[in-house]
Design goal:
Elements: H1 6-13, E1 29-33, E2 36-39, E3 44-47, H2 50-53, H3 62-74, H4 85-97, E4 104-108, H5 111-126, E5 130-134, H6 143-148, E6 163-166, H7 186-198, E7 203-208, H8 224-235, E8 238-242, E9 266-269, E10 281-285, H9 287-294, H10 310-325, H11 328-349, E11 353-359, E12 362-370, E13 375-376, H12 388-398, E14 401-402, E15 404-406, E16 409-412, H13 420-433, H14 435-438
Parallel strand pairs: 3-14, 5-6, 5-7, 7-8, 8-9
Antiparallel strand pairs: 1-2, 2-3, 4-10, 9-10, 11-12, 12-13, 12-16, 15-16
Helix pairs in contact: 3-10, 4-10, 7-8, 11-13, 12-13
The chain binds pyridoxal-5'-phosphate.
């Protein structure tokens, strides 16, 4: 029997995302087990980026699959106008584990929808039109979410009136030319300035990724998030925390803002909420927002067919129970220390590593042609394809390790169940692949 080429078939009939179609050469993945996936040629590949930084539990988790099958036997879908056991239990569980007084959720099928809901809820609640987001950010591909986004994926997006972009919190390349700790956290103070100049009476919210994800794993100094919380409070503006990538143990805490004891007014999440076993997202709101919508005059004017989807909710609930039962977040914190040490050793050995930064199992390795000038291999928008970072990832893949990259940074975010031996395997392959960039570093 001739072997069907599913890569060619998919390429012909299905759009590859965010890519030139003629250059897309996908690998066919057929199965997964723990931190590994297997392709159609039976290559076993260490998944060092949890696919799209979302397979937090790893692949083939039996408890989640069982929950999915059991719910499928009962009922796969109910209109969101009905209540279901999985939606009720997931909402309650999220309220128990979320920081501060976040207590009520709108349950979606992904991160972009969660951010769309966040935008709508913030506008309904504040009756104000504007949002401040940052340049190096990604919030999703749908109209509102891509308008908040500041990275090159905004190409062809028409934008949304009222979005004002703020400079990033990026100490390695400080937009203000300053150096921490003597900088006075200008990147936070400048957001205060923007709000004042725009008029606090016009700004609904400040939308941030607490650690910027695909745009370079940018970790803020410890003072940044608490100060941003104060600035929002002083100006009567909502703090909207996009934890789509950072949530559910990725950074060694259940939610990233917990590192700084900060609680947002609205928090969006997806990816790790279900470990990607099914598409799930959520927008959580604080008690004061929930109470606002309890008032008879305030309609919650938002929804979608697949809101509160019972299959998605059952899978998400089982995922969170696995995180708790198997102490997955604690493992992420513990293995995060191992990862940190090994990546710092890698930086010592390879002159093309400009900076290693991250928390828990969420790490970025930024590559440079010259450590003194910090000249990047790839600036935005990327001009060559495949660019140097893509070539490094391809080289690691030849050694059986999948590592994601975006613009000038390798993104290392393995499943949170990873062991020290698997970390060794992944870091070793990246080290080999970095010989490519080392050769071009002065
Ligand atoms: C921080 C952040 N927000 C939102 C999104 C959008 O999520 P989705 O792709 O599920 O729509 C992403 C996706 O990568 C993300 O990283």
């Amino acid at each position: 029997m001739s072997k069907v080429n599913y890569a060619e078939m998919e390429k012909k009939y299905v759009y590859g995302t965010w890519t030139y179609q003629n250059k897309w050469s996908p690998r066919v993945i057929v199965s997964g087990d723990g931190c590994y996936v297997t392709d159609a040629d039976e290559n076993r590949i260490l998944d060092f980026s949890s696919q799209l930084m979302c397979s937090n539990l790893g692949h083939g988790n039996k408890a989640v699959i069982k929950a999915m099958m059991e719910q499928a036997e009962k009922i796969c879908f109910a209109s969101p106008s009905f209540a279901t056991m999985p939606a009720a239990l997931l909402g309650k569980k999220l309220a128990e584990i979320a920081p501060g007084d976040l207590c009520k959720s709108f349950l979606t099928i992904g991160g972009a929808e969660a951010n769309e809901a966040a935008i709508k809820i913030a506008r309904m609640y504040t009756r104000k039109p504007k949002f401040i987001s940052r340049y190096r950010s990604y919030h999703g591909a749908s109209s509102g979410a891509i308008a908040l986004t500041g990275d090159p994926r905004t190409q062809y997006a028409v934008g949304m009136p009222g979005v004002v972009r703020a400079p990033d919190c990026y100490c390695y390349r400080c937009p203000f030319g300053k150096t921490y700790p003597g900088c006075g956290i200008t990147c936070a103070e400048y957001i205060d300035e923007i709000i004042k100049l725009e008029g606090p009476q016009t700004v609904a919210g400040v939308v941030i990724e607490p650690i910027v994800g695909s745009n370079g794993i940018l970790v803020p100094p410890d003072e940044y998030m608490p100060r941003l919380r104060e600035i929002c409070d002083e100006n009567g503006v909502l703090l909207i925390d996009d934890e789509v990538m950072t949530g559910f143990g990725r950074t060694g805490k259940m939610f990233c803002v917990e590192h700084w004891g900060v609680s947002p007014d609205i928090m969006s999440m997806a990816k790790g909420i279900s470990s990607a076993y099914l598409p799930v997202g959520a927008t959580m709101t604080s008690r004061k927002i929930a109470e606002f919508f309890d008032q008879p005059e305030n309609n919650f004017s938002h929804g979608q067919t697949y809101a509160n989807h019972p299959m998605c909710c059952a899978v998400s609930l089982a995922t969170i129970e696995e995180y708790e039962k198997k102490k997955i977040v604690q493992n992420a914190a513990k293995m995060g220390k191992v990862m940190e040490k090994k990546l710092n050793e890698l930086a010592e050995e390879h002159k093309s590593v400009g900076e290693v930064r991250g928390k828990g199992l969420f790490w970025g390795v930024e590559l440079v042609r010259n450590r003194d000038t910090k000249e990047p291999f790839v600036s935005r928008p990327a001009r060559a394809d495949p660019n140097m970072l893509q070539r490094v990832s391809a080289e690691a893949m030849k050694m059986g390790v999948y590592v994601n990259n975006f613009i000038n940074t390798l993104i290392i975010a393995p499943p949170l169940i990873i062991t020290e031996k698997e970390i060794d395997e992944g870091v070793r392959a990246i080290g080999e692949a970095l010989k490519l960039t080392d050769k071009e570093t002065r």
